[in-house]
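I am writing to request your help with a piece of structural work I have in hand. I set the record out below, with my sincere thanks for your time.
___
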Amino acid sequence: MSAFLSYLTLFWEYFKIGLFTIGGGYAMLPLVTQIVLRHGWLTEDQLISFIGVAESTPGPFAINLATFVGNTVGMSTGLGVFGGILGSIVATVAVVLPSLVIIIVVTMLFEKFKSSKYVQGALRGIKPVVVGLILSAVVTVGCKVILPQLNFKSINASGFSQFNWISLIVIAAIVPLSLVKVKRKKIHPIFLILLSAVVGIVVFGVFNVQQ
C-alpha cells in the first residue's frame, strides 16, 4: 500500500469513528478496536498498551489514542519520523472534524429545537446506547488485561489458562481508592495513575514478576 493510500485510509477510518461514535472517548473503543485490528495497524496487546498511555497522558482520551495510532501508521509508511508526525496529524484531525462541524451546527440550531419532543426523545434514546458502548469497552479491556489469552471470537478453555492475578489485585485496590474521600475530596486520578505506574515498575521491572 502506498504512503498516500495509507494516509487516506487512516483519515477515512478515523473520520468514520468521529462521525458515528456518540458518547466520547470510551464509547469509541469498540469501533476503534474493530478498525485498528482489521487493518493490522496494531496487535491487540499493543492497543491495550496504547489505551493505557492515552488515558495516562494529558488531553482528551480519544484524541490521544488517535494521535498514537496515527503515529504508528505513519511510521510504517517508510517516511520515518516525518511520516509518524503526519500520521498523528491526519488521525487527530479526522477524528475531531465531524464533532467540530456537528457541534457548530447544533449550537446554531439548539435554541430553536431544544424544546422539540423529537429532539428530547432522540437524546433519551441515545443515553442507554452510550452506556452500553462504554460497558462494552470496560469488559473488553478488563478481560484482556486479566485474561490475556481470552479471545471473544472463539471462547474456549485455553482462553482461561493464563490469569493475571496481579492486574486483578491492582484493579481491586484502585477502584475503592478512587471512591475514598480525604477532607471531603476524592483522591485525584493523577495520583492513582502514578501509584499504579510505580506498582508496575516495582512488580514487573524490579522484581521481574511474570504475568
Remarks:
- The chain has a mean pLDDT of 87.
- Residues 80-113 form the longest helix (34 residues).
